[in-house]
Amino acid sequence: MNNIADPSICLWDPAPYLIVSNNIWGNFIYYSHLFPSLAILLIALFVLIHNPKGKAALSLFFLALAFTAWSMIDLVLWATDRSDLIMFFWSILVYFELLIYITSFYFIYTLIKKSWPTWRYELGIFIIFIPAFLFTHTALNLTGFDFTNCWREALEGPLWQNYVYTAELLIALWILIFSYLEICKPKNQHRKTELWLATGGVLAFLLSFSFGNIIGSFESDWEIGQYGLFGMPVFVIFLTFLLVRFETFKAKLIATEALIVGLGVLITSLLFVNKIENVQVIATLTLIITIALGILLVRSVSKEIKQREQIEKLASNLERANTRLKVLDKQKSEFVSIASHQLRSPLTAIRGYASLLLEGSFGVIPQKANEPLQRIDESSKLMALAIEDYLNVSRIESGNMKYSLSDFNLPTEVEHITDDLRADAMKKGLVLYFKKSLHSQGVIHADIGKVVQIIHNLIHNAIKYTPTGTITVLVRDDVHKKKVYVDIIDTGIGMDQETLHTIFQKFERAKNANSVNVSGTGLGLYVANKMAEAMGGNITGHSEGDDTGSRFTLEMPLAL
Prior knowledge:
560 residues, 9 strands, alpha+beta, two-stranded antiparallel ribbon, single chain, 3 domains, five-stranded mixed beta sheet, elongated, 16 helices, Rhopdopsin 7-helix transmembrane proteins, Heat Shock Protein 90
């Protein structure tokens, strides 16, 4: 028993809160355990809050949790005087040490690839953990407890000294090789620098961490081994630099928060150090961080101020340009209105005389003149429709479009329009159907003339852009939603998704429209939709793609 350390000589004190004890005051570098772990945990939490769906942010948070858990367990080993607690916590420390390396790999992988590792990587990680699962609570992990000195040490077995440290060094090498192969792929030099700094920070932390632990295991000098934990403050510096310089995780506010947290942690740690040499170390580290990150923040703020001034200048110029554009747009609308009205009068005369000539009002017309007169009549009709479109656009944009609202039966009007246009469909060899499926009378409160114009436009378009097949006009309602719908379904040229997004804009036509009909201003659907919206409705278009047909749907509210 003479070789057993005497607690009275060793001055062991109890640790009622596991980590609070006089056993760890004095020469022990206390802040290197607790405060860097809290710093990285807080920074990781800020990152996760700003990027709740970010895989790299989540990996960083678990890395911080693993290191914090390791640090707290290590503090228990230094603080407590109970051999049973030392043996228990020392034995489970192997899990958290491996977790630090695994989560470091996950962090680098997700930061580079922006996705979780593939199943092959995760299978390799699982295999690494198998020996820890199997032998942690055996003599391969800890062989016993040393009562012969004042350090209260467990005696490590081959699991630690042979397997764990080898696995850690292999994972660090794995991170280096993976990073090198992946970072060489992007051509963006800015992105490469960001990823190399992240990798360098992680590897600097891991190698420092392993170096300290390996010294402790093989030299039995655990106090010197604690200097290996300086790797975490180094990683915090790297991470904060990434946040400030490269805006990693896309949250500028984190940079300022990280700097404040880091400085606060370092300054607070001064309260827990008894030796002036350690105070100088912390003060020096604080000064370095303050100068380095302070310069970056000042540059960032200066850059943002310049950008804001440029944006304000551009906004002022844009406002003046918009004002000028409004004036020009108004002048354009006025010009279109005047020009259209000026064209209407002679065009009306042309149409009138062409019609009289075809009817024989001026005598018998030679057979050779009939075809030219018919072309004049048809062309003048198309021109009249185009002029009407331009006039309607001018009225809509100037706010002069008038609406005379009244109650009327929509299915009846739609059926009449379908009957009127059936002859045009038959000329092209098309079949034009009318159907209705109603649970109400289908009465709406709208401008009957405008609604007729909308329906006429939609059916006319279907006839124009359907080379062969059928056109179905369906009137249906939804009494629960208090809506009535008019579907115009054709077997025509159809549209792709890109066209569907632009078809209701001014001067927009389907890309394949000219293949079947070259006439058209690209204003019909724009005018129809604006009219429908002004009366509380809207028009939507649907198609599965080119040559699959189209469906245009007019939606109007039922009259209350």
